[in-house]
Specification:
The chain has 172 residues and is an alpha+beta fold. The protein has helices spanning 2-17, 27-57, 61-65, 85-96, and strands at residues 68-76, 82-83, 99-112, 116-129, 138-151, 154-164. The chain has a 6-stranded mixed beta sheet with strand order 2-1-6-5-4-3, covered by helices on one side. The termini are far apart.
């Protein structure tokens, strides 16, 4: 009897020590959660784009700069590379001294990777020169690719690459 009792206790001990198998992942639930996270990220990126263009147009460059990582790198056709948020803010201030800039962005593709995302789009930038401008008023179209990174402050631009098409009549 003692042996049977001990054997019963041993079985109870072994069973209680074995962890329960993890539930099988539900691929449909995982796919739905991923799609939901992707859509939320895209909405946040589009809201950030709208805020950046609006704040910049209003001259609030520090507020617009908050959407850029502190060590952002921006490369735009025909311009020197911009490295860092503070350099981006300074470049925006310098540009504002020669006229009014307006930018419209359209997201064409969006790839989501969890805490990173790649946005590809097209933009139209309109420039109205003032009396201090060394360049004339114009409208430029360009394609862009941005690497976004999710941070504690929200989605921020880590890399921004813009290819500007030559103005009409200046092909080549």
């Amino acid at each position: 009897m003692k042996t049977l009792f001990r054997l019963g206790l041993l079985v109870l001990f072994v069973v209680s020590c074995n962890p329960k198998p993890a539930p099988e992942p539900d691929p449909q639930a995982e796919a739905a959660a991923w799609q939901e996270a992707r859509e939320a990220a895209l909405a946040e990126v589009e809201a950030a784009n709208a805020a950046i263009t609006s704040l910049s147009r209003e001259g609030q460059f520090e507020a617009a700069g908050a959407y850029f990582a502190p060590d952002v790198i921006q490369i735009i056709t025909g311009q020197p590379e911009i490295r860092g948020r503070e350099a981006w803010i300074a470049a925006q201030r310098a540009a504002a001294e020669i006229g009014d800039w307006s930018l419209e962005l359209e997201v064409l593709d969006f790839e989501f990777f969890g805490d990173h995302a790649v946005e590809r789009g097209r933009g139209v930038q309109t420039f109205e020169a003032n009396e201090n401008s060394p360049i004339p008023s114009m409208q430029l179209t360009g394609d862009y690719m941005v690497l976004w990174q999710k941070t504690d402050e929200g989605w921020q631009i880590r890399y921004d690459y813009v290819v500007v098409q030559p103005p009409a009549g200046e092909e080549g």
